[in-house]
Amino acid sequence: MNHNQVLLYIAKPNNGQHKETYKHNGIVDYPYTNGAGTEYELFKKINQEENPIGPWGLVSSKFNLKSSIEINEFYKFATEKLAKGTDCAFINPMILNESLFSNVWEQGVIVGHKGIDQIINFLIKKNNFKIKTISKRDFSFCNYFIASKKFWGHYFCFIDTLLSQLDDQVKLGSDVGRIYSGSAGYHKNQNMSMKPFVVERLLSLFITACEHQNKFNFSKFEQLEEHYIKKAGLHYGNLLYNLKRAKDMSHSNEKTLELWNSVRFEIMKNQSIFHGLLHLDDPDYKLIKNSSALKMHLGNIG
Q1: DSSP-assigned beta bridge partners for residue 261
Q2: Which residue has the higher pLDDT, 60 or 2?
């Protein structure tokens, strides 16, 4: 194996016995034990135990389910960008959310992570951060990124500092601490704390902080109209794609901003459509996997 090769690990739950299987060039299965912690803990585990020399990343085994592209396409994109000097190449799989929400923190508030706005406000004040009210290049969920070794070092330092500040609030018993350690109100698992939902939003914050300090070069996989149609169908795909275009242009055009807000709020008022779009952006894995069983059955009787 070329030790400077770009590596993309795919996190897959197993019985705890670590065994790498090289699927395609630098795309590698990374088995882990259920209950091993958040993806951030897996990041640190890979960094300490595997100690990759070249650029690397870790994505969920649900990448192809959540994203509108195949994992091989993302790996190719990232490899090419890193070869040209990019420090971090990433993709936001939640493109419908990106069209609908100003930034990842507003999204958290509206979908029911009660109090997450108090957490980001605390971090902003504590660290004198400047965040964009409407984010364009830094909107990102799921931590689907591949980055250089230097980038990872700064990223770990940044995240650890912020998590330590929040842990201190837990010890103090402050309102922020109680929110951070309490339930995130996640509809799939009410026992999940706020931590993983904060961590997945910190990449966006890190990108913004780096841009203000002229640190690191980022490359985002920009998704086209066809990707929106693949996720949401022809009509809603077209709507959400053009809504994203309006959002991106709203920074410099007041009328475009008004139109973007008008359309997105109209969608949000229609709860059935709104929640339907959110589910299309983040499909239910247990439900979708029935597709294989149906296909096999129909093939056998066909």
Answers
A1: none
A2: 60
Is residue 54 within 8 Å of 3, Cβ to Cβ?
yes
- Residues 216 and 154: beta-carbon distance below 8 Å: yes
> DSSP string covering 240-300, please?
HHHHHHHHHHTTS-HHHHHHHHHHHHHHHHSHHHHHHHHHHHS--HHHHTHHHHHHHHHHH
Widest CA span in the chain: 64
| Residues 110, 115, 116, 118, CA torsion sign | positive
Question: Which residues contact residue 56 at a Cβ distance below 8 angstroms, ignoring those fewer than 6 apart?
Answer: 6, 7, 8, 9, 46, 146, 147, 149, 152
- Is residue 116 within 8 Å of residue 105, measured between CB atoms? yes
- Give the confidence band of 213 by pLDDT, cuts at 50, 70, 90: confident
Interval 238-272: pLDDT, tens: 999 999 999 999 988 999 999 999 999 999 999 99
Q: Are 262 and 268 in contact (CB under 8 A)?
A: no
Of residues 84 and 132, the one with the higher pLDDT is 84
Give the model's pLDDT for residue 286.
Answer: 83
Average the pLDDT over each of 1-15, 64-78, 226-240 and give the range with the smallest value.
Answer: 1-15
Burial of 203 (0-12, 13-18, 19+ CB in 10 A): buried
* Strand duo 145-147 + 56-60: pairing: antiparallel
Q: Do 180 and 170 meet the contact criterion of CB atoms below 8 Å apart?
A: yes
Give the ranges where 101-233 is alpha helix by DSSP (H). Answer: 104-110, 116-127, 149-172, 175-181, 195-212, 225-232
The predicted pLDDT at position 281 comes to 96
**β-strand 27-33 against 7-14: which pairing, if any?**
parallel
Distance CA(173)–CA(255), nearest Å, equals 45
Question: Can you say how many angstroms the Cα of residue 106 is from the centroid of all Cα atoms in its chain?
Answer: 15
